[in-house]
């Protein structure tokens, strides 16, 4: 037996001896306190485990919510890009139609006879 084992044995013997030297009332009180401490430690471990379980459940819910939000963001971004592309097409059409309208107005203004000198009921020919 090495010296560390000998110290452990000697310490246990001393504890047993000191325990036996305590009066019966104090031994009972000490035993009750030890049981109470064990029960308190057990309750503490249970509370801690419940807290860990609750946090794990909350983490799972938050991860699920996060992945749903990532999906919504992805879909919204795709829709935004589609709308932006459609807006670009519409802007190009506006430019084309504006040029066409200006051309048609120019044609109308140059080919139409000047009617502002003639009253409405006066024939031109």
TrEMBL record:
PROSITE patterns per the UniProt record, alphabetical: BZIP, BZIP_BASIC
Alphabetized Pfam families for the sequence: bZIP_1
Lineage of source species: Eukaryota, Viridiplantae, Streptophyta, Embryophyta, Tracheophyta
Any one GO biological process: positive regulation of DNA-templated transcription
Every BZIP domain range: 27-90
Ranges where the record places region Disordered: 27-48
The protein, known as: BZIP transcription factor 11-like
Molecular function GO terms recorded: DNA-binding transcription factor activity; protein heterodimerization activity; transcription cis-regulatory region binding
Main location: nucleus
UniProt subcellular location: Nucleus
One GO cellular component term noted in the UniProt record for this chain: nucleus
SMART domains: BRLZ
CDD domains: bZIP_plant_GBF1 (cd14702)
Stretch forming the signal peptide: none
Alphabetical UniProt keywords: DNA-binding, Nucleus, Transcription, Transcription regulation
